[in-house]
Amino acid sequence: AAGVIQSPRHLIKEKRETATLKCYPIPRHDTVYWYQQGPGQDPQFLISFYEKMQSDKGSIPDRFSAQQFSDYHSELNMSSLELGDSALYFCASSPGGTSATGHEQYFGPGTRLTVT
Amino acid sequence: AQKVTQAQTEISVVEKEDVTLDCVYETRDTTYYLFWYKQPPSGELVFLIRRNSFDEQNEISGRYSWNFQKSTSSFNFTITASQVVDSAVYFCALSESLNSGGGADGLTFGKGTHLIIQP
User: Fold this and answer.
1) Out of B43, B50, B104, closest to residue A100 by CB
2) Angstrom distance (rounded) from CA A33 to CA A51
3) Mean pLDDT by 10-residue block, N- to C-terminus, for chain B (119 residues)?
4) C-beta separation of A116 from A12 below 8 A
5) What residues of chain B lie within 8 A of the CB of A56, using their CB?
């Protein structure tokens, strides 16, 4: 079965640079979520989208922005990168649209971002 | 605010033993959803189970079983006859229905329990 696709899988950036992470949800899933997992930490919810509209917002820094496109894929844009942004970034998708809450979220393999 | 507590940071057992992972949650919502995810050393997050707040039936799936008790706000996970392949970090997570009007609420995860199955 098709899974969530994330690219790139690994990314190395320097401080103050920008990065863009991409997420392609499971076919027919219309909702995407972004999470950040620091080393040895639990995943922290950043933001979610349904039908190109922001749905829920978590602990996303102001330096980060995200959007969902008409084909449902999503991009997380990160600017002025800091050492503390080094983490595993997960995208998840689910069906359900406006009633997506409660549906299981299927996670991609993650993008490992290293900021030096 | 919602909160998930997994008090067991690390558990180590010998293969074939049974093991229970504890999860306690806090929420003000009457409608909420509970989840368990597995994160093996390879790093991916694997969905295991979802339970809504209106369904207190226990569930069994092979060697896995889940015990949901609203009276104690707990959603515990038991692995019977553990195997080395069960070694992973296990996360309990919660989502509420009223966090946002958009309906796609993020999950709140517990800190995770690192399960080590020794051969």
Assistant:
1) B104
2) 12
3) 94 98 94 94 93 86 94 96 97 78 80 97
4) yes
5) 99-100, 102, 104-106
